[in-house]
Every structure is written in C-alpha cells, then in structure tokens.
C-alpha cells in the first residue's frame, strides 16, 4: 500500500509537471515527464494521448503514428482519430488520412477542418467547397478568417485547374491572402489586368501587415512577398512581357525562398521562356524542379506540366533516350493525353524518321478517336513537310468534324489548287455547302420553309462560284450564282456575274437576265463635273493624255488649274561637313589634277625606287622624256657614270627601244619581274 501511495504521489507530481510544461509550450520536457508516467503505467490512455500530442508538437509525426499503431487496442479511433489522421496528413499519406477521418464515429470540428484540407490536397474541390461552407456556417471562433481564406483558395483552384467560373462569395478582401486568392481566380478566367491590380493590392496589404511587427525585417517581408511577385511575373509572361517576367523570376530565385513548390514553378516558367534557346540555363533551372517534397506542394497538372517541359528540354539538348523515356512515362500515366505522343513524334522527326512519326500518330488516333482531330492535323503537317500534299489533303478530309469549317475548306482548296487538282477543290466546296444545307434542314425539322442561309453558308457559296469562274467552270458556277441571287435579288454584283457566265453558255438567258439590271437613270450619281475635272486626279490624267495648246490651254489655266511642282531632292552632305568653312572650289576635279596636289608621300627608301622593275632607280623627268632625247644629240657619258647606270638602272635609251607592243620586249619584262620577285618585295 505504501508503494502504491508513493507511485500515485509521484505520478501526481509528474502530471503537474506535464501540465506546466504544456502551458509553457515546452513539449520536449513534457514528453520526458509523460514517459516517466508510462513507466509507472504503460497502458495509461491519457498518458499515451499526451505522448502523441507532444511528439506531434515536436514534429515527430512518424514516431507519433508508431505509438498510435503500437497501442491500437487502447488508442481506438474514437479516442485519437484526429491525431492519427493529422500525422498521416503531415506524412503525405492523404488517402490514409481520408479513411481515418471517415471511419471516426463522431465528426468533431477539428476533424471537419482536417477533412477540408485533405479534400483540397486530393483536388476534390467541389466536396472541399461544401465542407468549408458548412464549417463557416456552423462555427464562430477566432479562426473564421482562416476558413474564409481556405474557401477562397478552393474557388481559385476551381477557376485555374477546372476552368469553372467562380461565384461571388461576398468575402471582404481585408487581408493579403484573400486578395492573392482572388487574383488567382481572375487569372484562371483570363482577366489578367484585373488580376494584376489585385496582386498589387495584396502586396500593399502584406507590407502594411508585416511592417507593424518590429521583429520582422525587410528580408522577411520580401520572402513573404515572393509568392505574390511570382504571380505578377506569371501574368507578365502571359501578356508577352517576357523580359520583365524573366527579371522578376530571377530576383525571386536570388532571395532563396524556403518554399520548394514556389521555386519549382518559377524554374519551370523560366524554362518555358527559354524554349530551345539558353539551354544551359534551363538545365540549371530544371534541378530546382527535382527538389525533395515538390510533388507534395504542387497540383497534378503543375507536376505534369513540369514533366512535359523536362521531356522537351531533353529533346532540345539532343538527349534522345532521355526524351523517349520521359515521354513514355508520361504516356503511361495519361494514355489519353496528346502531348506525350506529340513529343515522341517530334523526337522522331529530329532523327529524320518521318514515316515512323506518322505511324505513331496514326496508332494514337485509332486508339483515341476523341483526340484524333488534333493528331491528324499534326500528321497532315508532317506530310506537307515531306512534300506529300495530296496525302496531307486526304488526312485533313478524314477529319469529319472539321470538314465544313471555313478554315479547313480554305486550306484544302489552296492545297488542291497548288497541286492543280481543280476537281477535288470543287468537291471540297460542294461537300461543305451540302453540310450546311443538311444542317439547315435539321434545324427546320424537315419542313419546307424558306429560311435565309447563314452568313458562313452564303460565303462558301460565293467563294465556290468565284473559284469556278476563275478556273473556267462557268456552267458549274451558274447554279451557285443563281442561289446567291435568289437569296438577295438586289445584289447587282452577283447578277452581273451571272449574266457574264450565261453569256458564254446561253446568250438568250443572259439577255433575259440583263433586263433585271437597274437602268442608267437609277444608277446615276449626283456628281459635280467641274469639281471632278478640277480635281488633282483629273489634272494628272489630262497631263498624261496630251498637251493642251492655244485657247484651250489658256482656258484651263484661267480655271485655276494647279500645276504639280516637282520637289527637288536635298543633296547629301559629307559626314565631316563644316558650314563655317568655305568648300574647296576644286573639289569636283580628280586629286591628281588639282593645283595643290604634290603626289603621294613616300618613305626615304621608297623615294629612290621607281615604278619599273626591281633594282631600277628613279631619274629626272628630262632623262626619261623620250621626245626630248630623240630631238637632242646624244651626249657622251661622264667618266664613271656608265657603270653606275648599267648596274642600277634598266632604262633603255630611245634609239634602242622597240615598239610598245613588241612581243620580245614583253617577254623580257615578264622574265625580269619573275627574277625580281625573289628579291623579297
């Protein structure tokens, strides 16, 4: 009895210690006291609950879940359902957390709050929205603002990922979180300018809220604003302001935020801006998308987009095996998705395997008829790239849901015209017109009631008629023109075309139809003839027709005819033009003919070398002047001068010269030039 009393007294003291530590937030010390209590009574339910709570508060979720599973007989789901579900939620075992919550016999407010979070992570947004609405309606405490924030986050997710038009919740955007979520919802609707204004307001509210706390530094504020700035940069990117977006993205990365999800999204967006350029930067950024825990921070569509971009980056960096591996993995995860098979086809085209790429796309179109249209358009593009235009037309015509579309009709007609297959082009027009006729019959429920044709239908008929007329198919064009005229009997242009077509086929019919043309009186316009003749256009035409002479010319001048003056082009001035300096009067003469020309400046050694062959010297002009030498008698050389001339000059006296065109002299000079080349000029 004394031992039991002593144990009870010790337990009481330990419980007091646990209570005191719990109130002070010292859960590590409280855990030590709880463990001592469990040494006294290992199946104490309250002590086990306290131990689980202490472990959760210390962030030891695995250990807390282990305690719950170990003592499952004592800690039943009714006792500790919330703590178990919360541990599973924090350990990213979301499906298990949902089962734990649903198996609880009593749904407390805490479990409902956690239930909403679990549904959001599972992307069951409709159920999540209903859960938060129920919580806000049936609870009144200090956490109402947080619930409204979560509710707005659900609406934003619906708008972004499910393209649901968000309803007005009537929430007062008094916090930056609410403003941010509202901006995300607007981005999902494509209202980018309004979203940017909301983000700017959120930034302002965030600065005001955090600046009130003296312990918060400017770095802390910038870290909190990082997610807002990230959305601003995303809007800039969507608006085409890629340089501004890239600058803001890089500023956020330099801050090194702790949110791995934010870093992964920013890195992915930078990769999409880089595309096939700056691949080395993209390879660095892609590492941020592989950080631990990213898969638990982002939605499925975000993770899928990141994987698509990884595959594309592998293709752009010529990592063919990696590209095939990633795209095959994506296709196994989402067999109906278009992008994986398109990436595989693009990789095959880079490897010049176009036929294999077309076969891959054809197999996908056969397996997934719902997505066949997009795939067949890609196949047609590949056929056009290979020069198989006719095969491309066959593929396009197999897309039944697009056959009647004006864009498809225009593309097919253009391609068939390029191949000079006019019959097939006319057949395309005919099929499209018949589709609209059948559609009109369906809307009238088979009743034979005259109804005006749709603008698209009439446009197709007109284009078909014009095409047939252009290619000489007047008989075939007549039916189309008659249909158009029937729809609008006042259309003079169509009537004129119809008469022109009948004039070559049935002239009598053309005469009958010509009676429907309006008379010249009804077609006359009130025109001021004098004003028309005196107009600039009439004057110009009259000048080209011929010159006026005599009285007519004076009369026309008297009527105030204005002659067109030709504008003189301004001359171009030199770059170094100085208006203060008088221009050189000899500037129009060649340089050699100007009075101040002194010849080219040469070096000291070059002054002694003439323009002749190597080794010759430049002599005076009087010595080289053949006319002066021929007229004057030859002078005797001075003593010693003959050896110098023969050694250093190749000048031949006039009496020994041969005509300039003599072949012997030319051959000799060429030989001397070859010898001189060895001297090292």
TrEMBL record:
- The answer, when asked if Ribonucleoprotein is one of the entry's keywords, is yes
Q: Which InterPro entries match?
A: Signal_recog_part_SRP72_RNA-bd (IPR013699), SRP72 (IPR026270), SRP72_TPR-like (IPR031545), TPR-like_helical_dom_sf (IPR011990), TPR_rpt (IPR019734)
* GO MF annotation terms: 7S RNA binding; ribosome binding
The Gene Ontology biological process annotation of the record reads: SRP-dependent cotranslational protein targeting to membrane
SMART domains linked to this entry: TPR
- Compositionally skewed regions (Basic and acidic residues) per UniProt: 575-596
Locate the compositionally biased regions of type Basic residues: 563-573, 665-681
Keywords on this record?
Coiled coil, Cytoplasm, Endoplasmic reticulum, Repeat, Ribonucleoprotein, Signal recognition particle, TPR repeat
Which subcellular locations apply to this protein?
Cytoplasm; Endoplasmic reticulum
Regions of compositional bias (Low complexity) in chain numbering: 610-644
Instruction: Name the coiled-coil region(s).
Output: 94-149
Task: Give me the Gene Ontology terms describing cellular component.
Answer: endoplasmic reticulum; signal recognition particle, endoplasmic reticulum targeting
Q: Which domain of life is it from?
A: Eukaryota
Which family would the database say this protein is a member of? Answer: Belongs to the SRP72 family.
Q: What is this protein called?
A: Signal recognition particle subunit SRP72
Encoding gene, per UniProt annotation: Srp72
